[in-house]
Design a protein that fits this description.
Order of helices and strands: HHHHHH
Radius of gyration: 19 Å
Helix content: over 70%
Largest sheet: none
Number of helices: 6
Strand content: under 5%
């Protein structure tokens, strides 16, 4: 998330479109998370730390029963943020992508997700971010234009 804030900070004085993309990154991430929760509540896949008999104990406490495994919320959020950051600040992808991939790997490594949970989370997060950006970038860009114009009008009214 710190990288998303840095992307917004960098974009804030740029074009209205770039600002809109920076504003949409956390919105797309929230939408991806919501979709992930909806899918989890429908699928009900038990986590490997509870379901795999004879497996080594997970490195972190196993989430409680009812906190389902598929898809990985961490991976969904990480992928959505990486795509949102990349849309705003292309060169930051070199940092955002490895963070997203390592986030997913860590969920498998600690024993709370299967590989397909992470793959589905990454796919869901990236897809939701792309769709959200595609659907909302134009109206958000118009909103940024409008707010900037309103701010300029306000500044001319209050300056001596």
């Amino acid at each position: 998330m710190a990288l998303a804030v840095a992307a917004w900070w960098r974009a804030r004085r740029g074009s209205a479109h770039r600002v809109a993309l920076a504003l949409l990154a956390p919105i797309a991430t929230a939408a991806a998370y919501l979709l992930s929760e909806i899918i989890k509540s429908a699928v009900h896949e038990e986590r490997p730390c509870r379901a795999v008999a004879g497996a080594a104990a997970s490195l972190i406490p196993c989430p409680p029963h009812g906190d389902w495994s598929f898809p990985s919320n961490h991976s969904t959020i990480a992928a959505a943020l990486a795509v949102g950051i990349a849309a705003t600040w292309r060169t930051a992808l070199w940092l955002a992508l490895p963070i997203a991939l390592l986030t997913g790997f860590s969920r498998i490594f600690v024993g709370v997700h299967y590989p397909h949970d992470v793959a589905a989370g990454h796919t869901l997060g990236a897809t939701a971010a792309v769709l959200c950006t595609a659907l909302l970038s134009h109206p958000t860009t118009r909103l940024v234009h409008h707010l900037r114009a309103s701010n300029r009008k306000w500044q001319t009214l209050v300056q001596p």
